[in-house]
Design brief:
ATP-dependent dethiobiotin synthetase BioD; DTB_synth_BioD; EC 6.3.3.3; biotin biosynthesis; alpha/beta; seven-stranded parallel beta sheet; P-loop_NTPase; 8 helices
């Protein structure tokens, strides 16, 4: 039984593809797997959203709890729409209930760790703490970061925020590793485990999300084994 919470250090760092890769790896290991998206924004833009993307790449089950039109932080999108959305505490129980049906439950956040998922100020960090309190020792937080300059600072800030709330991250994933990495990318890959004290689990190749589902599922386990 595994409960994995996936957060980014920022938006557009490859968090959804990393979530899909974690799901594909679990499925390949024979684990019944579901991916949960507590809050999805930007649905009015025509973007299918993160959960459908994960489902298309992996074939796993997904759940979405809150959907908002504008491509903003969930609390901002809700305030602008004049609607009330559930507090993060309301997401904890249905997520924990999924552990009765699935071997692996993966929760994907929205943007960075402290992006507000509700209009009360609740964040993915708050949700992770609630889940950890309910099932001590079960929650694994995976931090997805960029490869480029600035990522060391973003990763350290995210890891520091988790540790300040009593959660030790399980690992870091570089969400998009360039075909021809430069000096900054190469050094960052070496330095991320040193400066954060968190192991590097994988560096996903750039364009991984554009692979066919068959190619993606076949390669996912190897991405984690390569670090």
């Amino acid at each position: 039984m595994r409960l994995i919470v996936v957060t980014g250090t920022n938006t557009d760092v490859g968090k959804t593809v990393a979530t899909a890769a974690l799901a594909a790896r679990a499925i390949a290991a024979g684990e019944r797997t579901v991916v949960v998206k507590p809050a999805q924004t930007g649905i009015a833009t025509g973007d299918p959203g993160d959960a459908p993307t994960v489902a298309a790449l992996t074939g796993c089950d997904t759940r979405e709890y809150t959907r908002l039109d504008e491509p903003l932080a969930p609390d901002s999108a809700a305030r602008r729409a004049g609607i009330t959305i559930p507090p993060v505490a309301d997401y904890a129980a249905p997520i924990l209930d999924l552990l009765e049906e699935y071997d692996t439950v993966i929760v994907e956040g929205a943007g960075g760790l402290l992006v507000r998922l509700d209009t009360d100020g609740g964040t993915l960090l708050d949700l992770a703490v609630l889940l950890d309190e309910a099932r001590p020792g079960l929650v694994e937080v995976v931090v997805v970061c960029a490869a480029a300059l600035g990522t060391l600072n973003h990763a350290e800030l995210t890891v520091g925020a988790l540790r300040a709330r009593g959660i030790e991250p399980a690992g870091i994933v570089i969400g998009s590793w360039p075909v021809e990495p430069g000096l900054a990318e190469t050094v960052n890959r070496e330095e991320l485990p040193r400066v954060t004290g968190v192991p590097l689990l994988a560096a996903l190749p750039a364009g991984a999300g554009s692979l066919s589902p068959e190619q993606f599922r076949g390669a996912a386990a190897d991405w984690f084994a390569a670090t």
